[in-house]
Predict the structure.
Amino acid sequence: MTTDKLVFVDLETTGANPAVDRITEIGVVEVDHSGEATHWSTLVNPEQPIPAFIQSLTGISNDMVRKAPTFAELATSLHERLEGALFIAHNARFDYGFLRNAFDQFGLSFKPDVLCTVKLSRALFPHERRHNLDTLVARHQLKADVRHRALADADLLWQLWQKLRSDLPSETFDAALRSLLQRPSLPSHLPTNAVDNISDTPGVYLFYGENELPLYVGKSVRLRQRVLSHFNADHKEYKEMRLSQQLHRIEVRETAGEIGALLLEARLIKDLQPVHNRLLRRQGDLCAWQLNENEQGHIVPVLTHASEQDFGRAERLFGLFSGKRKADAALRALAESHQLCLVQLGLERRSGPQKPCFNWQLKRCNGVCVGKESESFHRARLEAALAKLRIETWPYEGAIGLIEQGADRTDVHVVNNWCFLGTARSEDEVHDLLEQSPSRPAFDLDTYKILHRALANKQLPVRLLHRQHN
Ligand SMILES: [Zn+2]
């Protein structure tokens, strides 16, 4: 919690619409850090008539407010009174909305941390259906004098607060409070409305720094929650803090579902190379082992690079690795665990004609190098050892559409040879993506993994697409 001063606030108004209706009474119970409570209230001249039914509901008549101060007269001192405190109200959006609007007209910015006691009650008593003030008065045996007058209602909230604090374990109460106040302060360079329009849909978010420098790309099935979690003080690590300090702009791209978000994230990270995406950032020299026949007619693993051939189309590939060193290490590890021959695999030079490999002497090779094992048998064992690393050849004739159905949109992810060409939302867009796709789009490891998993698990329906022109 950012503050230890509390203000319990209730307003009476001429109606429910903050844009046209006006405040007629303000009740505030101020509680300082020592728990000392000060009650304050005033009628307010709304400078417009109070409808009859509101008069009978609240007991506040046109006569009563005629001589009361207007909001203009109260604005500055009221703003001081409320400033810096946790703003607590029942249906807080209502009271906070009215006050913020009213202060706005006098150029006073009002952005307190806001706590709604309806939400608090719901969080603490999730099994209860009703959380209106009358119900809470009865449930918690609060002392109600006059209902629907501002100070009396504000005092009920203060009573409720004290009752909940004393009746519930403090961890329970504090946890509910923390989760409700999780509207964390936004990073300082962001406009205050920067997250207002981010919904909890699947999609990708992009963080930009000064001069539109791409800082970070992330994905989530709940965009809003994920974006806000970056600014949550609870887990503010150094890395997150640096990111927040540099952040100037947030952009979001909604998707129908998780697969679309994953594909788009992988692509944007490759395209934009954001500063903070270090882990996913470097594709390096993408390579794989391919089983080929050498000059002696032996089938041996040969290192092949994504820059040399289309991994989506190539056969008998095993990998993938981000560079030669990793590829060598992986093959050596396999050789060791399967007693394969490093000479036969081309990872070790024969020390002389007919000489065995080094591991044969250590009894770590089954002896293909000295004729103790047949080449075909060694090869079969090699293929079995490599099986887990096999890169599947693209199983379709051409491009396909993966159809992802969201809550209110349908995406078609256009894919060919394990490469993501883009997401379409209409037949025209599908057509355009196929038209524009380069004849050999770059193979990407992350995209391959996402697609391979999606196809293997039949996560999405597949539609075969045919290129119109070739
Ligand atoms: Zn050997």
